[in-house]
Amino acid sequence: MDLLDKYQLKEWWLQALTASQRNQVANDYRPMGLPIGETPYLYQDLDKTDSNNGFGKLSLLLTLSYIAGDEAKHILQTKVENELLQCYTAPDSNLIDVHLALASLIKHHYSLRTAPEHYEKAKEFCLMQISISSKLVKKFRHLEKPKELKKLQNITGIKDPYYDEPQMLPSHTGYKQLAIILEKEGNIEGALKLSKQALKQGWTDNYEKRIDKLNQKLAKQKKN
Question: Can you tell me the distance from the alpha carbon of 110 to that of 18, in angstroms, rounded to the nearest whole number?
């Protein structure tokens, strides 16, 4: 079983991309800088590889889209967004994978914000990422410990601070970007509410400073 089999992408891969597109993407996909072997890493038997890239389906597709040529890139990006909608609603989905994919898509569409469809898509993905944010807090604070590490700790009794201690939350693209968008649109109250919610959940983006700035803007608005 290779990575495409693992994520049930093999049939789509063979139908959606030409042979030359598949060869280009597969040959250029080298996680962790692994050298090109006789068999591209994407096609290697997972049971025989020394490491697992740790990505979910969405992260894999996004990575492939980054290295793909122009025509294949569009096909892969479309596939990412289609798969995202399914993973977002699935009860057993990998939420960290969904969260990371949404962050990437928000940045992509916002970079093209001069086109109205991309601007609206960026806002849509911000809302989607924010809607699952409370579920991600615990997952990021208490990262899942690898099975191999659990076995070693049972033997040695040594704790690992990275997994055994609560971690600081990372930046949250959806909260940060949507607050900026709302502020630019003149919706200061909406931006303020979002920033306060992000601060309460613990996401790292210096929200105290942003809240102070928004409070000052709101006070000026009310005076006028």
Answer: 30
